[in-house]
Amino acid sequence: MVNYRSDIDGLRAIAVLSVILFHFNNGWLPGGFVGVDVFFVISGYLITGNIYKNIKSDSFSFVDFYSRRIRRIIPAASLVVLVTLIAGHFILVPEDLIDLSFSALASQLSVANIYFTYFLNASYFAPDAELQPLLHFWSLGVEEQFYIFWPIILLVLLSRLSNTIVSLAAIGLAIASFVLAQAMLLHSLCLHIICFQLGLGSCSLEQFAFFGP
């Protein structure tokens, strides 16, 4: 695993605070949503580091990797969804409660970002974003999809290519994602649009990018 980094914990704290302030009142910190991007970069760095070191030491296990992610994410996420549904039952009108039910299901299936983008046409910056209680689960959906696909991709590539080639491929994917995000004006919450932040974190791993055979 990547060794504990107090500076990363500090960066996480700043990111959390910026997002909280943004949601309380976006006038207090208009760019506070960038904290989500910071989290993506940190996740890319830490997850790639853990996977890379385990692959190189022949100790990587998909069961162990996914079980860790499940134990860390699912209980808390499920509790938030449950409490939101209970509150929605008493607060929302039937039509909005139906939308909330579908978004809750999408959140539990790790596809909240896809649901909000293609079924509700909702954006993190849309005028009615505050009317979607579970909209913030879009970022968790991106993370979980990254956890599903990235270990498989990295294991296949590292077993066949050098670190340099793999890191160049990761950089290329991150650049392609960034260009696509700019072309679509960030009106999508899907992994292929957002993954340049995760890719940036992955490429910044000092043991991975351009080092080693």
Explain what this protein looks like in three dimensions:
By secondary structure, this protein is an all-alpha fold. The protein has one domain. Helix content is 70%, strand content 0%. The protein is built from 8 helices and no strands. The protein has helices at 6-24, 34-56, 62-91, 94-108, 112-118, 137-158, 163-183, 191-203.
Instruction: Return the average pLDDT rounded to an integer.
Output: 80
Q: How many helix segments? A: 8
Classify the beta-strand content into a percent band: under 5%
Indicate the multimeric state. Answer: single chain
Question: Compute the gyration radius: what is it?
Answer: 18 Å
At a glance:
The chain is mainly α and 213 residues long.
Short key terms for the protein model shown above:
213 residues, mainly alpha, 70% helix, globular, disordered C terminus
